[in-house]
Amino acid sequence: MERRCTLCRGSIDAGTERVLCQCGRLLHERCAAAHAEWCDADGTERWLGAVEL
Ligand SMILES: [Zn+2]
Ligand SMILES: [Zn+2]
Hints:
By secondary structure, the protein is an alpha+beta fold. The protein has one domain (1-53): Herpes Virus-1 (2-Layer Sandwich), CATH 3.30.40. The chain contains one helix and four strands; from the N terminus they run ββββα. Strands 1-2 form a two-stranded antiparallel ribbon. A two-stranded antiparallel ribbon has the order 3-4. The radius of gyration is 13 Å and the shape is globular. One zinc ion binds at residues 21-23, 25, 35, 39, 41.
């Protein structure tokens, strides 16, 4: 099962440092910082946990 980084689209091997973001995307550890700038789970809008009114 090959996993790919959401940011750079590179394959993420078993030995690679990887981060599962709050939004559910899998990223390289170094790519996670850049992804955080446009991550839709880390901000005012939370699409998880915002169901309850
Ligand atoms: Zn990456
Ligand atoms: Zn994210």
